[in-house]
Amino acid sequence: MSNIHPTAVIEDGAKIGKDVNIGAFVTISSKATIGDNTTIDAHAIIEGRTTIGKNNHIFSHAVIGSIPQDLKYAGEDVKLIIGDNNKIREFTLLNPGTKGGGGVTRIGNNNLLMGYVHIGHDVILGNNCILANGATLAGHVELGDSVVIGGLTPIHQFVHIGDFAMIAGASALSQDIPPYCLAEGNRATLRGLNLTGLRRHIDRESINELKVVYRELFERGEALQEVAQKLLKNENSKEVKKLLEFVTVSKRGIPYTRKNING
Questions:
Q1: Is 61 a residue of the active site?
Q2: pTM of the model
Q3: Distance CA 42, CA 24 (A)
Q4: Tell me, what CATH number does 8's domain have?
């Protein structure tokens, strides 16, 4: 049985699942869907055509589903879809998609969005990601699974970040970061592999293979995509293939320090 505070405003048409807890002064749109066992704390706002899955916890003063911060938005019917088991902390702001980006912002499962995080329009966020306080994702950003974004770090629009990558706090990222890599700085550049994160999830042999390929890609001073395409022809490791394939299709480029091959 759901527990809904008497001061909450739930518009007609909203769909509320089983065993949902809704705190004081929460506002929920008529087009919203709230999954089972979800908790929405006091003063949170759920707007627009927002779908929230099961077992989520939305903390006080979060604003979920308000219209995109995009001047091209003209009232189109757009969506925000949130998966299961997410923790969305205080004062977060999550926007739906736009017509130009496919109309959907999509958040996966088991993510932690700390205080003051912003998820812009048309963002695709994978599973098991951690976005620390004040991390901000501009429109059309895509994150893979198990990505960590440090606090106070802005991510430029259309940037892609691969699985198990980490962006250090107080960085500013304007280019793509391949899977398994660590980036830091303003502007952020590659600093190596995200070894701490990898050791929690990937076996030692695979990590050693990634180390070899990382050196070939980023420490030899040769043309990046040419090296990636050459290495892909004979590669069997799924982790290495994922890294190489990401590099070959990157549209914003990979930020790293080019070395002088003649030096």
A1: no
A2: 0.97
A3: 5
A4: 2.160.10.10
